[in-house]
Specification:
about 300 residues, alpha/beta, six-stranded parallel sheet, three-stranded parallel sheet, 10 helices, 9 strands
Length: about 300
């Protein structure tokens, strides 16, 4: 909600206390309620008791949650999630449009120990078994070395919960005045400004990656187990690096379909492939830096 402008009010309905949520929503006297959740059953129950003139929500295969809605939209794993939400909007009588983002807060790289050009590294995901969607430290280290040799500063971003992990990763990166961690230090609006100021963003598949893509940043999404056809970055300068199904990747649909005994496959996305994609996106990568990387890993 901090990042959007096209709404009149922001009301928190605590789904962990369903009856309180119902009371809060009924007080709004809604004409239409659109439930954007994809698999939670409690939100479907709250929608049913909302008192809204029309309720619209997803029918998700295997989740048994569609009965309360007046209009039902198939939540399909055969299309990108963006298209699922567009279908939800259309079922409610809306149109398809890009979100109206609030202007970013001013971001002065110099105040944070950065000078341009710099690249944002966002190493952490969230949610079920998020560690299996994270790139190995050694890969971040190899990528950072190539970028630093090519004259780019480095900025690690993350939430407050990532501060200690960011400090550990920072210690592995090349030392220099233009290499910093801002994990836990930026609001979402400030993060917008940071992403827009960067020459590029390299991120695991998580919300920050989608924000960077929406902002039009040069962003590379490291997908691994995440199916890019369902959850890949969408934007004019968004690039997805995947692990194909034949190599054990691209199996996540709702986000919790990890096979028993699943092991991390993120290492199969090589630092070299990220360097190549950054060069293709227009970053000036020193050829000797690429050669040094190839020699080191040969």
């Amino acid at each position: 909600a901090q990042l959007l402008t096209a709404f009149d009010d922001h009301v928190v309905a605590p789904l962990s206390r369903p009856w309180q949520a119902v009371q809060r929503i009924r007080a709004l006297k809604l004409d239409i309620l659109i439930d954007t959740t994809q698999w939670a059953r409690i939100s479907a129950v709250v929608s049913f008791f909302s008192g809204a003139g029309l309720t619209v929500g997803f029918s998700t295969p295997g989740q048994f949650r569609s009965a309360p809605y007046g209009r039902v939209v198939l939540h399909s794993n055969a299309r990108h999630e963006l298209e699922n939400f567009q279908a939800l909007s259309q079922a409610a009588g809306g149109t398809i449009a890009q979100p109206a983002l609030a202007p970013p807060s001013p971001f002065d790289p110099g105040q944070h120990g950065l000078r341009q050009p710099f690249v944002v590294l966002h190493p952490w995901a969230a949610g079920t078994r998020c560690e299996l969607r994270e790139w190995p430290d050694a890969h971040w280290q190899a990528l950072a070395q190539q970028l630093a040799l090519s004259g780019y500063g480095l900025c690690i971003t993350g939430a407050k919960s990532d501060v200690s992990a960011a400090a550990r990763l920072l210690a592995l990166l090349p030392r220099g005045p233009n290499i910093v961690s801002l994990a836990g230090q930026l609001t979402l609006a400030e993060l917008e400004g940071c992403l827009q100021s960067a020459a590029a963003v390299v991120s695991v598949n998580t919300g920050v990656m989608h924000l960077a893509a929406l902002l039009g940043c040069q962003v590379i999404s490291l997908n691994g187990p995440t199916n890019a056809a369902r959850w890949g970055g969408v934007g004019p300068h968004s690039y997805n690096l995947d692990v194909p199904p034949s190599e054990g990747g691209a199996f996540l649909n709702l986000g919790f379909e990890y096979p028993k005994g699943c092991q991390s496959i993120m290492h199969k996305i090589s630092p070299e492939s990220v360097v190549r994609q950054l060069a293709a996106a227009g970053l000036k990568i020193i050829p000797s830096a690429v050669s040094e990387y190839q020699t080191h890993h040969r």
